[in-house]
Amino acid sequence: MSIRGLKKKQPKTFKVRIITVDAEMEFSCEMKWKGKDLFDLVCRALGLRETWFFGLQYTIKGMFTWLKMDKKVLDQEIPKEDPISFHFLAKFYPEKVEEELLQEITQHLFFLQVKKQILDEEIYCSPEATVLLASYAVQAKYGDYDPNFHEPGFLAHDELLPKRVLRQYQLTAEMWEEKITAWYAEHRGIARDEAEMNYLKIAQDLEMYGVNYFPIAQNKNHTDLLLGVDAKGIHIYSINNRFSPNKSFEWSSIRNISCSEKELTIKPLDKKAEVFKFFSSQLKVNKLIFQLCIGNHDLFMRRRKVDSIEIQQMKAQAREEKARKKMENQRLAREKQLREEAERAKEELERRLFQLEDEARQANEALLRSQEAAELLAEKAQIAEEEAKLLAQNAAEAEQERQRLEITALKSKEEKRLMEQKMREAELIAVKLVKESDRRAKEAEHLKQDLHEAREAERKAKQKLLDITRLNYPHMAKYPQYSPGDSRDANFDKGSVKLDLKDIDLKRLSFEIERERLDYLEKSRKFEDRLKELKSEIHALKLEEKQAGLYC
């Protein structure tokens, strides 16, 4: 067969882009492929066996819909683009994630999708629960918390909380990180798949988990209700409340669901019960609700039947895989523990080695210091010995000086005693001189008084003599040349001589008194000078005695 013939037989293809929550893939599909062929190709590429939860979703005219498995891909109303984009997402949700999600890849895909729905606020979650869920997400991504590796700010580029929660509380990114890290540190030892399963177990209890909402009306004119379809049944909500349904129809209580154009009919299992009819805005919405109801109902019935051979094998493999992973995790945990212990032992040995090296260095430095200290002590000892000799010499000199001072002190005491004796003698002489001065002063006073009395008597005698002369010889004044008067004059002259002699004695007495007074003053001055000299000598002796006391 020619190469041209082979080329002609090659089927025509078209390209599709498959977008998962965390990756993108491109495939070449044959023109005749149905939706199931493309879906099986994607599941094989992902290694997914629990295919009944998932589907290929696309958006057309602003409304999302799911690729039909039994129709050709190109025959469906898909976007006209190259490559054609489909989102590989969970279409149906399990009632109990821990029992129904068997494969790790299935669990991981559900974890990523539910996490995105919570962050996009398609599923409402309380702020406290969002922080706990975020901590499990961090554990799944980063593993065990290590404060040395996970430093502040390591979550700065991770989206972990809904914007609604961030707006609701006025907390900084650092505060949120601190709260998440506090929970994250508590999850130590939890593997990635366990952290993701714990995340899903918390999320499955949220009111909006796994619910697909559609606007409906109880009549053709008003759209005032919401219809929710999930793994447990059909629920009717008011337009402003997606948490608490006004009415619910569990799958076990529904006998039949029918769809005709825009009308949806729910027939309860109880034939006497009222039949509920609702209207949707578009036929496509009605068909989408109908498809979701059929798929959820089939899964609901499958859960309550005996597992097929395939499911039993998958569960057995899942149990074996969990047991193997558990043992592997235990082994890894043990190895990690042993490694941490070895690292701690290594750090301890390094610390001990460093400590020993430091001790050796310190000992070497101490030895050098001790050698230097020994040399210094030897020098100091020599200096001390010389100082001791010098001190001994000084002590001997001091002893000699002390003895000299003692002798000087004794001499000073003797001189002091002599001086004191001289002072006492001088004081006695001074007292005697004072008494003598007083006595001489009194005598001089008496003499002066006697002199005054004698002079007064002389004056009176002269006056009396003159008076007598005038009375007896009045003519003598007239006749001075009279000769008889010579004898009287001679007598008068004798009297004058006697008076003159008496006057001479008085003068001599006054002169002697004055001379004795001057002698007394001279002696007093000399005695005062001698007293001053004695006081100076006594003062000098006292100073020497004080200095001698200081030297002792």
Automatic annotation (TrEMBL):
SMART domains attached to this UniProt entry: B41, FERM_C
- Coiled-coil ranges per the record? 311-464, 517-544
Alphabetical UniProt keywords: Cell membrane, Cell projection, Coiled coil, Cytoplasm, Membrane, Nucleus, Phosphoprotein, Ubl conjugation
Q: Which residues bind a 1,2-diacyl-sn-glycero-3-phospho-(1D-myo-inositol)?
A: 68-71, 287
Task: Output the superkingdom of the source species.
Answer: Eukaryota
Keyword Nucleotide-binding attributed? no
The gene name on file is Nf2_1
Q: What is its main location?
A: membrane
Q: Does the keyword Cytoplasm apply?
A: yes
Recorded topology in the membrane: Peripheral membrane protein
Membrane-crossing ranges are none
**Gene Ontology MF: a single term:** actin binding
Write out the GO cellular component annotations: cell projection; cytoplasm; nucleus; plasma membrane
Say which species the protein is native to: Pteruthius melanotis
Supply the PROSITE patterns for this chain: FERM_2 (PS00661), FERM_3 (PS50057)
Name of the protein this chain belongs to: Merlin
Localization, per the record, is: Cell membrane; Cell projection; Cytoplasm; Nucleus
For the FERM domain, which residue ranges apply? Answer: 14-304
